[in-house]
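Give me structure tokens for this 228-residue protein.
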Amino acid sequence: MDLEHALKKGEKRIEPGLLAAAHRGILYVDEVNLLDDHVVDVLLDAAAMGVSTIEREGISFSHPARFILVGTMNPEEGELRPQLLDRFGLSVRVEGISDRKDRVTVMERRVAFDEDPVGFAGQWEEKSRSLVADIETARRLYPQVKIDREQLFGIADYCLEVGVDGHRGDIIMMKAAKALAAFHGRRKVERADVETAAELALPHRLRRQPLMEIGDNVSKIHRLNARA
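Here you go.
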């Protein structure tokens, strides 16, 4: 509620919130596993319907809320509610770097950024623009990408093998495979696209597997890829 407007004008008015600002954009949530239950419920409703509804103090108001949900978390601090976890299409496990040269590079780049943030960003500007161009090209190509029916059966086999509940995993995996093909400039999905999509779309969906074991889940997907 816009309390300032209510006090000055004596009228009730809804003030746009985070979900309204995130419409047609990205909603990033850090420590997503620590969200209060009522916030998770709001996110679930908005993710499912693409609309956020506010009802309070005699006012009912709805606004579009279609966004890409990006969340980060440390599994050691608690699990994510299964209903919300399923809303994340893809998952990536981030680990520390073990190569000593790469670790030194991380330190050097951090020092360079601290000393001259603008100059450091300028060093990567051309590469960033190139990546943006590649993504925009892939988005235009995506509607033309074809996937064979036999590959769809392969995706179904992956999901059945690991015990994925529902059908969201199958659909996300299919879309991810097509997106990978488009990103590499191809109009046809290849086996490598399906295998990579499986590693991104399935590990966090394995039935009754806590996120602490997501590394084991990825290994299981690798074994399935090798066997395929």
